[in-house]
Amino acid sequence: MIFLRHGQSEFNLHFTATRRDPGIVDPKLTPLGHEQAARAAEALARRDIRRIIVSPYTRALETATPVARALGLPLTVTPTVRERYAFTCDVGSPISRLRETWPEVGFHSIEEIWWPAIEEPAEQVEARARLFRAEMAALDDWAHTLVVSHWGFILAFTGKSVMNGDMIEANPTEAHPEQVVWKHH
């Protein structure tokens, strides 16, 4: 399966420059982030993707939308692949607001407030990644899955840091990383 980290968000732009939380709740993509999403859609159009799983954060949905359009696939939204809750950007938007912006997307069985109330310990994110690994490994066609996610979740699943708009392939039938080093890039 393929993990795609969302394109550059307003938070990423400011945090990279200042190393300070700019206080942006559920940030949108920057123009560069939209370009990264378009490039990903172009690259993935040549792949045999049959399922797109995406985090409910706006930056992930904005990244996944052009990919879904290019592939003619619906988005499957799940908070399981959300970012580790550690910054203001990890406060999400309520499901009712997301439905207004993406009426064509199903937000089935997702609570109105789906993100945690307090900072999420690393072990909790790694446990989520293990659960997702087991769910994906149980599918016969996991190799045809694209997951549009975030730095922390991808790190927890693969043990590797991925930059905005970049992709990494992962095999959910392989062992979970022995050690995840939580140093923010």
UniProtKB/TrEMBL annotation:
Name of protein: Histidine phosphatase family protein
A Pfam family matched in the record: His_Phos_1
The organism's taxonomic lineage, starting at the top: Bacteria, Pseudomonadati, Pseudomonadota, Alphaproteobacteria, Acetobacterales
InterPro entries: His_Pase_superF_clade-1, His_PPase_superfam, PGM_Phosphatase
Gene3D superfamilies named in the record: Phosphoglycerate mutase-like
Domain of life the protein comes from: Bacteria
Species of provenance: Sediminicoccus rosea
